[in-house]
Specification:
A five-stranded mixed beta sheet has the order 1-3-2-4-5, with helices on both faces. Strands 13, 14, 15 and 16 form a four-stranded antiparallel beta sheet that branches. A four-stranded mixed beta sheet has the order 18-17-19-20, with helices on both faces. The protein contains 25 helices and 20 strands. The protein folds into four domains: 4-166, Glutaredoxin; 180-320 and 398-583, Glycosyltransferase (Alpha/alpha barrel), CATH 1.50.10; 328-394, no CATH class; 587-670, 3-Layer(aba) Sandwich (Glutaredoxin). It is α+β, with helices and mostly antiparallel strands and 672 residues long. Helix 9 (210-223) runs parallel beside helix 11. The termini are far apart.
Amino acid sequence: MTNRLAIESSPYLRQHAGNPVDWYPWGNEAFQKASSEDKPIFLSIGYSSCHWCHVMAEESFESEQVAAFLSAHYVSIKVDREERPDLDAIYMAAVQALTGGGGWPTSVFLTPQGHPFYGGTYFPPVPRHGLPSFMQVLQAVTEAWHNRRGDLVSGGQRLALAIGQQVTSGSTRTREGLRLGTLFDALEQLQHSFDQVHGGWGEPQKFPQPMILEFLLRFHHLTRHTTALRMVNQTLEVMARSGMYDQLGGGFHRYSVDREWAVPHFEKMLYDNAQLARVYLHAWQVTNESLYRTIAEEILDYVGREMTSPQGGFFSAQDADSEGEEGKFYLWAWEEVERLLAGEANDFSIAYGVTPQGSFEGRNILRFMGDTSRRASFAPARRRLWEAREHRVHPKCDDKVLTSWNGLMLAAFSEAARVLAREDYLEIARCNAGLLLGELRSDGRLLHTWRAGQAKQNGFLEDYACLLEGLIELYQTTFEPRWYTAAQELADAITALFAAPEGGFYDTSHDHEALIARPRSLQDGATPSGNAMAATALLRLGGLAAETRYVDIVIAAMDPLQSSLAQYPLAFGQWLQALIYSLAQPQEIAIVGDAGDKHTLALLSAAQSGYHPFQVVAFAPPSASAAHVPLLRGRGLVDGRAAAYVCSGSVCQKPVGEPRELLNLLKSSRSQ
């Protein structure tokens, strides 16, 4: 027996197709049933790699007693938060307002009009740890619905109104102009909360914070502030050594449950690895620390090997559990290591913290504890363990392709292909961009999700913004006009479909499904908010487009948020990257020359080698210089040879024809 979720494309929804609960997907059918039968709605929101979502499913949603009660008194709706970030934003805000906290699974009770009146997260099957059982919650809400409905309905209406008002609160503050002091204030807050012993931020759980690390790298590049770079180095080295990093297969787990980064929550998310691959790549450019380059490549090799579809799409996540046990796939018994590595086992065990008693429930989480200069020497041993691990039952993979997360990974592969001269990475990037602009775009509009040949769901701001960032990187690696053209189209769609009258953008387009509120996320979470990524990408595109309208839109959105950026930097990491880009006098470099000419290649190398976070580069042969990127228009050869044009703001320098001249010009401009 299966329910309606069996025909859904989301792997998470399909996981619940065999529940005895009479689940509905989000849609008119469920709301019409609730209205006609005068029942409240039970809304459950989760995602496929969510451990506690699985736990609640096993404990409650597979219970015949719970299912019967839900069927008698509720209309039950199941939502994949990754497919519907708009619903997740609205109803997570409701749970946070009702309880002071939030998380997944999200459990919300709604009126037939969709107004939330009660909610929480995980509810156990029996009362424990101060939480009522799920059945107690269901019974209490049922009693209140029948006997105190007026209070519930009016409370839900007020809450829906408050959520709607909340989305504009960040854009109504006084505008004062972008300030360099905001960056220094943010740095001070980050220094204060930084873990000086173990690196990173947070206690007891540690999340990787890639957006903050990127900001600190940019801050160091702009100001030469040594503390900023020290925090980055300490955090990246500890993370690379830690149990949060898959020492055999590459890729980072979601977060560490302890301050020391020793024990991870074992799920792997595409968005974490997309952002962290770029952080490590940039840190290698800044420091020349070989470990950072190695980690960046291991992340991307893992994604190419295990998280990429034959059509070029990047999968969303790998589960934390296998065979019903969290982390089982990644854990090692002392005896296994001894048997598989034989004479090398002792040295490996010392280097990777393998002990007879284990570090996690009697088994070992591999952590590199040796000298980083010796890490490469353990590659054969790691390979043997990885090959043995491949015979284990693998964690489930959520194989849906999300445009937004794919855009983040597209940027990572595109930039790494350029920086590391990896043609295999470039092929992956091109294939991915082709899929996104083909299968996930219809009549010029993006769709949000794709799986097994089926694309659906109106695209969100985050989809347009993240793909815009990815296309900008792909263009600067290939200089193929089609990628710039697609990027320009996305930028124009952002301003046409998502603009808010008071500045900034909504998460949903103006013709999106009507909901109880039009969400507008400003804070960055594990992924950049749509607004912050739009700001970042539009600033860069504005340089290539050689016009100020994109920049003006971003500055108007960013200005009133500065106090929040200064006080709560951990919640605004992507915004801080956009702000520092605005304040750093970014450079636009146009290079014109014959593509195969050594002189042209030398100019391109001078412009693109090293870490340059505050610039964009366009290139075309002289016959095509006016054909695509506006920054190239009116530029030509100088004395019949390749030339580079450097602009910043509205000021352009005289063209230069020698790589050394270009380097001196860039160095001079960057020091101002």
